[in-house]
Amino acid sequence: MNIGIDFGTSYSAAATFVGGTLTPIRFGGAGQFRSAVFFPEVVPDPADMRRRRAESAAATVEGFRDALFGEEAVEAYLEYGDGNLIESPKSMFGYRMDPQVRRVIVHIATYILEHIRLAASEQLGETVRTAVIGRPVHFRSSMGDKGSEQAVAIIREAATAAGFTQVSFLEEPAAAAMHYHKQLATRQTALIVDIGGGTTDVAFAELGGDTLPRILRTWGLAKGGTDLDVNLSMQSFMPLMGNNVTRVPVHHFVEAASVHNLPKQREFRRQDYRFIDEPWQSRLRALQEPGATTRLNQTAERSKIDLSSGDATQADLGFLERGLGAAVTRDDLDQAAEPFVERVQRLLAEVRDAWPGEPASIFLTGGTSRSPIVKEAVRASFPDIPLVHGDPSLGVVSGLAVAATELAPPST
To answer: pTM for this structure?
Structure first.
């Protein structure tokens, strides 16, 4: 059985076709899970996991007994106050790292991919060993194209360690195009816009009818919904921590808000704020406590979601100081989103200028496509083109399932 895997920055999912019907893989009753894993004590040694796997299949399950995934992982970390929570490991795959850090990152990715493989095997009633895995056009990276090459190599190594015997890769906008292709009775040129948690990807494609989909060109931007969360935190919460009020450098607050970046989180926790005036000192030191930056990020994410359908929301920051809170408005979100929206619109302008003619439709998908601000930015870039809204969560993984079951394995 071949499955499609959307290993996302914020959320991960998998799917296949059974008897011609799209079948999402379920994770605790849900069709996706937050890309997070929690180890109550230390991250187990990869060599030990491989040895136990070689000894018996039952030992593989034993190796995952203490690992928690998704929202359950985050909740356990916040409850226990210690252990190791790793969120959005995909956002680190393209960055420079020493061999030991790379080893740990591969191991974390292995746990997530093994979690997916075991869930799929149990649901489908047979051992899953092959997969088509989605990848962005450009990974978030400090090394340019070499960063993307490293990221693919990390996923491939992790997939092998997780028990997959064959994996291939497909760019995420191309996967979304395959999903949209299934909905079109007649041939047309379409623009696919996939705005996820970590990246924004675009593809021009010929889709529909009885002919196979044809991807003409792809573009990528290493920015996504997690950048909105960081910007909203900087806009609405960090002034309460002393940003632009104290002598604490701005980059400290950026590091605190960047919960998906482990090196930045470590740097923030190493800082000494004992000589900062109150109330900033107590709040910053409270933010350095285990789980506090994760709670702050969750608060920013919830505020962003609330403001997608309302003009204002009240954020509770009582975990930092009794009674502390912040009123967050739609104007705050607009200001926080402005840098990201400008980048997306510049990318779409590049797409428009690079391609002769106009698409018949625009297919919009990805978790961040839920945001009204993002939808309006895409609509404004192509005001006369019909905008088709795909399933924000399943648009990419559905196309990966098509690639996994109906088409020849895509090239790597």
So the answer is: 0.89
- C-alpha 295/C-alpha 313 separation (Å) is 17
Give the C-alpha distances (Å, rounded to integers) separating 264 from 257, 269, 279, 334: 9, 9, 23, 26
292 is a domain residue: yes
Report CA 197 to chain centroid distance, whole Å.
4
pLDDT digits (tens, 9 = 90+) for 292-348: 999 999 999 999 999 988 899 999 999 999 999 999 999 999 999 999 999 999 999
The set of residues, in sequence order, having a beta carbon less than 8 Å from that of 387 and lying 6+ positions away, is 361, 362, 364, 375, 378, 379
On whether both 73 and 198 belong to a single domain, the answer is no
Query: Could you tell me if 131 and 203 lie in one domain?
Result: no
Domain match, 105 and 141 both:
yes
Contact between residue 12 and residue 112 where contact means Cβ atoms under 8 Å apart? yes
Closest CA to 398 of 76, 133, 175: 175
Please state the rounded mean pLDDT for residues 58-62.
42
Per-residue pLDDT reduced to its tens digit, 387-398:
999 999 889 999
Supply the CATH number for residue 230's domain: 3.90.640
CA distance 310 to 331: 11
Same structural domain for residues 61 and 161? yes
Q: What average pLDDT does the structure give for the chain?
A: 90
Residue with tokens 């090459």: 149
* Residue 233 and residue 382 in one domain: no
Domain that holds residue 92: 2-173+397-405
Q: Using CA atoms, how far apart are residues 57 and 59, in angstroms rounded to an integer?
A: 5
Cis bond leading into 409, ω under 30°?
no
CA distance 293 to 223: 21
